[in-house]
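Thread: Ribulose bisphosphate carboxylase small subunit domain-containing protein, structure

OP (GT): Posting the sequence first so everyone is looking at the same thing. Length is 88 residues per the record. Can we get the structure tokens written out before standup tomorrow? I want them in the notebook alongside the other entries.
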Amino acid sequence: MLAGLGACLNPSCVVRIEHAADPDPRRPCWSCWGEPRGYDGDLERVLGAIDACRARHPGDQIRLCIDDPRSHSALALVVHRPRSPIPA
């Protein structure tokens, strides 16, 4: 799914990676991983940043947020959801 994002992104997009240990709809605070940046056409760079965030925060949910001010649109995708512990 993430590999297909390159076709949807354009240089006017701003890409942001966020993570949260305990995401809750009533608590919309996620922490930013790195700085939001304009999409420069390098999808591998975006995927590498997601992998780096996952390596540093393996127990957190991670989402990719994309804002396109030119078309007044936004998209947020959960790209990593940790496995739940198996009950004993």
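GT: Both are above now. Quick notes for whoever picks this up: The chain has a mean pLDDT of 85. The beta strands are 14-20, 31-38, 61-68, 73-80.
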